[in-house]
Structures are given as structure tokens and as C-alpha cells.
Amino acid sequence: MQIKRVFTLLIALSFFTTPNAQENNNANDSLMVRKIFDEALENGRAYADLRSLCKDIGARLSGSISAEMAVQWGYHRLNKYDFDTVYFQEVIVPHWERGTKESGYYQSKDGTITKVNLLALGGSIPTNGTMEGEIIMFKNRDALLKATKKQVEGKIVFIAQPMDQKMITTFNAYGACYPIRGLGAVDAARKGAKAVVIRSLSLSEHEHPHTGTMHYAEGVGKIPAAAISTIDATKLEKLITGSKEELTFHFEMDCKVLPDKKSHNVIAELKGSENPNNIITIGGHLDSWDVGEGAHDDGAGIVHSMEALRILKELNYKPKNTLRVVFFMNEENGNMGGKTYAKKVKENGENHILAIESDRGGFSPRGFSVDGKKEHLDLIRSFNTLFKPYLIQHFEFGYGGVDISPLKKEFEDIGLIGFVSDSQRYFDFHHNANDVFENVNKRELQLGAGSLSALVYLLDSYY
Amino acid sequence: MQIKRVFTLLIALSFFTTPNAQENNNANDSLMVRKIFDEALENGRAYADLRSLCKDIGARLSGSISAEMAVQWGYHRLNKYDFDTVYFQEVIVPHWERGTKESGYYQSKDGTITKVNLLALGGSIPTNGTMEGEIIMFKNRDALLKATKKQVEGKIVFIAQPMDQKMITTFNAYGACYPIRGLGAVDAARKGAKAVVIRSLSLSEHEHPHTGTMHYAEGVGKIPAAAISTIDATKLEKLITGSKEELTFHFEMDCKVLPDKKSHNVIAELKGSENPNNIITIGGHLDSWDVGEGAHDDGAGIVHSMEALRILKELNYKPKNTLRVVFFMNEENGNMGGKTYAKKVKENGENHILAIESDRGGFSPRGFSVDGKKEHLDLIRSFNTLFKPYLIQHFEFGYGGVDISPLKKEFEDIGLIGFVSDSQRYFDFHHNANDVFENVNKRELQLGAGSLSALVYLLDSYY
């Protein structure tokens, strides 16, 4: 055998761990982490809890009666697990409703019509009856930004931009494509368009359109905004590219904005035995979009968080710091739960040291991303050998989560930590009718709960 | 902020890479690996090829006409991709057929009957009409081995042993539970049982029974062997444990063993430009069980292997060594394809240096397991930084694959490498009716193909 080593730069040693990182790995920790995963896998409640949230309640957009049901569900479920304290925290949330009319089609010069599967983007104004207009297609946002007013005026803008298949972490592809949804209505209205229709933000070709927030800007007219399914978008793009034919788009949406409404975050705690005023939060968001069942987004995060603390309690772990599970309201269209929580924590004079969020679905755990200081990342990397048997190996700087992000303004030294799961299937389900309980795998969900519970245990022990 | 580091043992540096491992990572390699993944994700053929194998052919057990269709399919598909040479390699395979009658139920003393979903294990003898007998249940294989002949004689043994949920790598749980399927008939017959019925080897509760090989032993009577679904097994176990009632089991199977049959491995090559007699094989198995569509097991391995070489050809890569894709026949019940291939390679005086197998499903890639020498593992670990952007981080000693394993007898210095994917969902589909194309995710499959193609490129470059 001949193994040639052509490049001999000896950088191997610093690859996975920073040179000065230390290892936290003793037999007790190893045993405790094993017990945590055993409990998650053998007696786990995450899957049954998720089934209940998805099936007994279902979709739960802020302001809806379903969201209020979810708040009650959360309170009673947390009480059932007998945490030290369970309470509501008032949050004022926006209230947008989809309405009951939502359909559309496009038409060729020869009269042929093709129906599309369409969803209003969250926050869109209605069409007030059928809206119709000539379609002008743009391959991507940049092309739209370069267009002249004359080209666009009075037309319906169709942005065909797909998410980039080449990006390995699908959240990066989502981030890169997000502006067509978040800002498409502003971009198009600035050029005089009467409406905007976008390709759904998904990496797979399927029939379900994806919804999600969109924004209007002060001083720019509001126009209706919708997404069509990726299958419809691909077909429409091909037709326009191929035939150069002029098509008209026709659609109706009776969505509406209602006055803000009172809702709640739901919070439970295991009180710290040494430093009760030091807070470590683990949370997800209780609201979801109004299609599907909010199973991955973010039912998974809700049951992950609850299960993480239930397991520690079940194993009779006495935390040093106060461990808090927070079910945040209104992540999807306003983040009022996250903002309210951060403000209240500060007002109450609590010392919020760490916050962990699970909002990337109930898939196989891969690790954690750290929005904090080098010390936070080093600490998490020091758990390397403890996590390795559970195939958890990703420990990098990165995003924490939407709900916990407002804490950063209030606490300079806080470490925000995002749960990272395998992201490949996430955008098959995100914000669409397919985000249902049946598309969550029991073991993958349980392993996520175990990894979060182990992280909370280790952070509480070593921070 | 206070980060306490209680345990300061500085073992971090030797954690992921061995101390003397080197890094192979230059700009050209990094660029080439990026091109490989781009091709896999943007122009990949793996998913369409898998759809064709699953839908145009479907299940393809050795000896069946479907298996012969698969051989023809493989030959023509490989030719389509215009490799340097494509050829058949004759393999004599066993021929077992399930037959058309396969059903069963159990009955209480009061006459209540409960139907079960049941599959004959591969290789089982038939029941010759309805077989019935009193059920004796064992919690696991050990309990059966400890039983007396008097307890078991004339009864139908039911082994209720489940796969262990606590094992993180599901293949380990499968390996630990495998003896109830592989050896259950021998164990039970030694105690005088008239038949054996096992709980299906799966980690999830669902209605589809799992088939798979079973064995008889010389000098031990042959008895029929079947698996019932995990849902049925759980229900039956509870009933027996709870009521202590005597139940009878009734079932019919008309499976049969037919004479061995001629079949083929299908092989294609990209000839080596420097060392054409040095062979690097990448393969999977073309046969499957006779239920489902053999999508994950091992349609994924077939299209992974073909795609790995197609991508290198598409990118105009000229290999130093001969790269060979092998579609092995008969992995499931005899491994005659693997055995024949190893023998022929030796006879032909070829120098087989490395073999890679993909037979762990079309899930998200996690890395590679190495059945070889430390030098093989060190070499693969030297690609760490090249694979990290693709979230591939598992490089450990471990199993290569069934099909490539006979090469080890012929080539002492060979390195066998197994593709390791995320294993959590594998045993939801393995050997049952759910192993269909729809349960394979396009991106996960494509990423697997990309990672294998990149590995082949790097091994060919640096070995």
C-alpha cells in the first residue's frame, strides 16, 4: 500500500476544537448524559405532546382562537409536568386573518386558463374582488430592482427566484431568497406594480404554496402579495420564457388586518438551588402559520423545550441556576412574545445568562450554533466528547433564534444558542400545508429533545 | 460572565483527528469538491434514476424476473452514461419465492380471533396448509435459549424481543436483535417448536411486517419462520403478559425454494490513466427484498454509485486508477454477487486497492466507516476540512459493507469503506412495504451521491 501525502500542512490538531479549548468530560457527566438520552428515547413524551399540539389544536396563528387554545394547552401541559411554577406573561400581538377566498389563475392570449395554488403572504392586504393584470416576470429580485417604472407600471410582478439548491445548509438558501417574500411588495410597488406574486420559498417541487411574513414600507403604496407553489412557479416561468407570450394573472384574496389582540407567553421554571436569580431559558414558539399544523415550525421546539426540562426533573436533577422553559407567542409575524419577554426580564432585575432556542424543526440533531462570545463557544466545544456518542458534532458561531434575539439588547454578556438539526427536509414543510405531525419522525424528535436536555444540564453545571 | 472550567484535562487536541494525521486540503481539491456537490445538487440524476428503478421495476429479489429486469436496467443505464466499458458478470443465485398465500391470526380460549400482518422470513419453508399451535412467548432470545424442551415442544414460539431504542446508531440495535430473525428457527427447532414467529426488526410501531434472511442449521429440523408487524407484536405481547391466557396461533405460507438461477453483477468502469490495474470499486446491491420497492435498500446505493462516477466523468476528471461501479446481485440472501466478484478480481490478477459500499439508505450523509488499516482511516481523516462544509464529520473505524466484504479474503491490504448516512429512519423502511421511492428525500439522496463522488475523487488522487 502506498499512501501519498502530498500536502503536509499540519493543521489537523486545531480543526475541530480551538487550540485552547478544554474538555469537560468526567464519568458523572457521561453517565448523566446517557441517562438523559435513555429517558428521551425510552420514556419520551415529546412525540405524544407534539401529536396533541398538532391534532388537538393544529395551526395557531397569533390572534386566532387556535392560538388562545395553544396558550391554554401550554399552561396545562406544563402544569401536568409539575414544574416549580407555571405562569402567563401578557403579550399584545398583531391579528391578521387569511379570510375564506383565495384563488387565482393565469390566462394566455388564446384564452387558455391555468389554475395556480396560491396563498396570501402574511400581512398582505386583500385584492377587494378579483384583481387582474398583465404579468411581468423577473428571474430574481435584482432584476426587479433594475427594471424601469415604465416596464412595471400597472402590471402584476411575478418573481421566479428559486432558493439556491447548492447551499448545503438550507437556512442559508432561505436567508438569501427571503427578500423576495419580505420585501417583494415594496420593491414592486416602488415601480408601480399593482400586485406581487412570488415563487414559494422551498427547495422541492410540490403543490403546496408557502406563506410567511411580508412587509410594507412607509410612503410606499400597499399592494397585495401572494405566493404560488413551486410546481406552479416552474410551469409559469417556463411558459413565459419559452413562448414570450403575454399572460394575464387573475386572483382574489380577502385577507384582512384586525386590531391587535391580547395573548400570552407561557412560562415554567425549575428554581435554581444556588443562584435562583441567574436565568437559563430554553424555548420555542407556540404560534404557527395558519396552514398545516405547525409541526416542525415550531411544535417541535415547544415539545423539545418542555421535554428538556421534564427529563431533568424526572432524573431528580437540582439545577444551580433557574431553568426556564418559555413558549413564545407571535414569532411568525411580529416577535412580540420575544420582545415582551426580554423587556420583562430586564424590568424584573433578573440576571439572564443564557438562552437556547429550538426553531429549526424536529429533525436529527447535529449540534448548536452560538450567538455570543468566544467563551460561550469554547464552553460548548468543551462538551465535544460528551456529545460525540450521540452523533452531535456541530459547534460553531451562528444564529440563536428569533424569540431569544431581543435578550441581546438587554444583556450584553448573554450567550444565545440555537439548536441545529439536519436541515435538508425543513423547507419541504416550512409554512405550508405539509407541516403536519405525520412528517415528524419520532426518534429524530426524541434525539433533539435529548440533546437539548443534555446541553441545559451541562451549561447549568459548568457556566 | 463567569465560565467555570472544572475539568481541565487537555485532551481536546487529539479528539477528532489522530495526533499524527495530516490534512489534505488545497485550493484545487476544495474547488473540485465544490463542483462535485454543485453537479449533484443542480444537475443530479440520482433521484430520477431511483424513481425509474423503483417505479419501472420495483422489488427485485434474486431469482425473480424483476431481478433480471433490474440487471438489464442497470446495463442500459450505465451505457447511457457512456462509461469506458460496461459488462455483465455471471452470478449463480439462490431462488426463493414467497408464494401467494400468507396470512395468520391468533385465537383466545373464548374463540376471539385477531388477524396479524405477517411475512414469511426469506428462506423459510412453507406451512403446507394451515399450521396451528399453542403460542409460547419469549421476551428475548436469551429466554428462549434457557427454556426447556418440555416447555416448547410442539408449540409455536413467539419471540417478542424489540430492537433497543436506546442505541443511537440504529444499525447497532439491528445487529443486536438480528439473531432472533437469523437464528430464531434454529433456536426454536432445537427445543422442539413447530414454528417460530418474531417481532419485526423495526424501531417504530407500524403495521408493515419486515422480512429478511433466516437460516437453518444442519442436523436441526426446518420449521416455518415468519415476522409479524411491530404493532401486532406489541399487542400480542401485552395480551399474553396481561391475561396469562393460552392463545393459539394459526398461519399459512406457501413460500418455496426453487433451483439456483443464473443472474449477473453489472459493472462499469472509468479506466485509470496511470495505474489501470489498480481498482477502486464503488457499489451497492441491485437486488432487494420482494416487498416495497427497495428504495433505500439498496436502490439508493445503486444510484449513489452510478452518480458518483457520472459526476466525475461529467467534470472531465481523468482518474489515475481504474474506477469501477459495481451493481452487486444477491446481497440480501446469499451474497453470491459479492463472493463472485471478489473471486473474479483475484483470478484476473487485478490489484484491488479500495472498495466503497453504499448500503445504509439514501439519508443525509454523515461520513464514512473504515474497515481497514490505520493508514486508511488516517487518509480519510486527512480530508476533514474538505468535507466539513458539507456537514460530513464522521470518520471512524467500522463496517464496510456486505457486498465488498469478500474482497478482504483476497486482498490483505485492501481498505473497505462504508458510506454512513443518518440512520434514524432506516428501520422504518427496511425490508418492508414502506421502502418506496416516496420515502426518499431528493436532497438527502443527492448529498449522499455528492459525498461519495468527492470521496472517490480524493481517494483516487491521494492513495
Question: What's the structural blueprint in terms of helices and strands?
Answer:
2 copies of one chain form a homodimer.
Chain A: H1 27-42, H2 46-57, H3 65-80, E1 85-97, E2 102-107, E3 113-116, E4 118-120, E5 131-138, H4 141-146, H5 149-152, E6 156-159, H6 170-182, H7 184-190, E7 195-199, E8 225-228, H8 230-243, E9 248-253, E10 256-270, E11 275-285, H9 295-314, E12 321-328, H10 336-347, E13 351-357, E14 365-371, H11 374-381, H12 384-387, E15 394-397, H13 407-410, E16 415-421, H14 426-429, H15 442-462
Parallel strand pairs in A: 5-6, 6-7, 7-8, 11-12, 11-13, 13-16, 14-15
Antiparallel strand pairs in A: 1-10, 2-3, 2-9, 4-8, 5-9, 10-12, 14-16
Helix pairs in contact in A: 1-15, 2-9, 9-15
Which keywords apply here?
homodimer; 463 residues; alpha/beta; Aminopeptidase; Glucose Oxidase, domain 1; 2 domains; 8-stranded mixed sheet; 15 helices; elongated
Number of strands of chain A: 16
Largest interchain contact: A-B, 65 and 64 residues
Computed over alpha carbons, the radius of gyration of chain A is 24 Å
Give start-end ranges of low-pLDDT stretches of chain A. Answer: 1-21
List the total number of helices of chain A.
Answer: 15
Termini separation of chain A (Å)? 49 Å
**CATH homologous superfamily grouping of the largest domain in chain A:** Zn peptidases
Overall mean pLDDT of chain A stands at: 94
Shape annotation of chain A: elongated
Q: Oligomeric status of the shown chains?
A: homodimer
Question: How many discrete domains of chain A?
Answer: 2
Structural classification of chain A: alpha/beta
Q: Strand order, main sheet of chain A: write it out.
A: 1-10-12-11-13-16-14-15
Helix content of chain A: 25-40%
Q: Name the beta content range of chain A.
A: 15-25%
CATH class of the largest domain in chain A: Alpha Beta
From the 3D structure, determine the CATH topology of the largest domain in chain A.
Aminopeptidase
Q: Largest sheet of chain A at a glance?
A: 8 strands, mixed
| Corresponding CATH architecture of the largest domain in chain A | 3-Layer(aba) Sandwich
